[in-house]
């Protein structure tokens, strides 16, 4: 799959995933699971088809299918988890899972429009994102999008046979700025 036209990135759509779209989600999760999730999360939710079905039933309203261009080509998923309601809205963690052909500039364009969608349409107050290890590209993308590093938990995660730091980034919806 190639990016044919730059203007495709001005037409990015978000909708709740349904039916066959969950299969694309599962394929992407399997392909990039070591980058997206902690090992125990993947084992608990994706180790069998039955566990995957349970996961989808539980979180189907928190998974958004992202398409680009007039042809509605699949480009990414946005997955919201650990939602916390408060008097001002909802705070949650987010994972952007971008398909390989759209890494680089596409990741930024999709994530930027994704933030706008989450803040304006879903009225999310605060988004948090976690990065395991020294993934400088992911950190750079989050910083470029306006996320701030709230904490670094030293040797918090065990991944790929070693302990790694966990970085927690967050961004507040500009509409909820404290006065």
Order of helices and strands: EHHHEEEHEHEE
Radius of gyration: 16 Å
Number of helices: 5
Strand-residue fraction? 35-45%
Largest sheet: 7 strands, mixed
Structural class determined from secondary elements: alpha+beta
CATH structural fold name: Aminopeptidase
N-C termini distance: 47 Å
The gross shape turns out to be globular
Tally of domains:
1
Please provide a written account of the structure.
With 179 residues, this protein is an alpha+beta fold. It has a single domain, classed as 3-Layer(aba) Sandwich (Aminopeptidase). 35% of the residues lie in helices and 37% in strands. It has five helices and seven strands. The chain has helices spanning 20-36, 39-46, 49-59, 105-121, 136-144, and strands at residues 12-16, 63-68, 73-86, 89-98, 124-132, 148-159, 162-172. The protein has a seven-stranded mixed beta sheet, with helices on both faces. The N and C termini lie far apart (47 Å).
Can you give keywords for this protein?
Aminopeptidase, 37% strand, 179 residues, alpha+beta, seven-stranded mixed sheet
